């Protein structure tokens, strides 16, 4: 009887402690559940941010490619126009040279009035001046053509470097996928810990 009474007293003393311990365990479990929920939310946010970043990078690369192609087309068109203009100037210069030669022949062959000679000399001088001006214009156009060729070469080099940029983007995509896998593994580990 005494032993039973002692056991009952011990149980009455230990029962509040056991209840308190049980409450503490429940609180700890609730905290772990809240932590798991927060981690899941963070993982979802990180995944969405990574996907948005990848989409933005792809869009920027596509815009850059389109811009380079447009610039290249514009440069090609301008180059063709300059070539046509050079051809026209060369034809005009040849015609002016022929006319100058004819006038010089007329000056040599003719024995007309002095006034006519003076007029022809004046025309020859004017034609020479015009020929010099055309030569200067031709030189300027040649310089511009060389400059456009240089710009075109630079644009072609940029287009050649664009695959390298795409390769870097693919590497970045692989790294982001690895990060997503690591995040999913962490989530699974947390779930296993909570289950255990």
TrEMBL record:
Residues 1-172, 121-196 form the ABC transmembrane type-1 domain. The chain crosses the membrane at residues 26-46, 53-77, 83-107, 114-135, 141-162, 169-195. It is a multi-pass membrane protein. It is found in: Membrane. Coiled coil: none annotated. One of its GO terms (molecular function) is ABC-type transporter activity. InterPro entries: ABC1_TM_dom, MetI-like. Keywords: Membrane, Transmembrane, Transmembrane helix. It comes from the Eukaryota. One of its GO terms (cellular component) is membrane. This is ABC transmembrane type-1 domain-containing protein.
């Amino acid at each position: 009887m005494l032993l039973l009474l002692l056991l009952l007293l011990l149980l009455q003393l230990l029962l509040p402690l056991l209840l308190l311990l049980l409450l503490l365990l429940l609180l700890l479990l609730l905290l772990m559940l809240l932590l798991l929920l927060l981690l899941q939310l963070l993982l979802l946010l990180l995944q969405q941010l990574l996907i948005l970043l990848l989409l933005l990078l792809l869009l920027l690369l596509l815009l850059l490619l389109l811009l380079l192609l447009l610039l290249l087309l514009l440069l090609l068109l301008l180059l063709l126009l300059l070539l046509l203009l050079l051809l026209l100037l060369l034809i005009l210069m040849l015609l002016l040279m022929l006319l100058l030669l004819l006038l010089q022949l007329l000056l040599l062959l003719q024995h007309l009035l002095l006034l006519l000679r003076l007029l022809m000399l004046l025309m020859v001088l004017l034609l020479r001046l015009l020929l010099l001006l055309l030569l200067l214009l031709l030189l300027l156009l040649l310089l511009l053509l060389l400059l456009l060729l240089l710009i075109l070469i630079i644009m072609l080099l940029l287009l050649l470097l664009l695959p390298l940029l795409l390769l870097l983007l693919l590497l970045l995509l692989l790294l982001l996928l690895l990060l997503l896998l690591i995040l999913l593994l962490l989530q699974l580990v947390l779930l296993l810990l909570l289950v255990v």
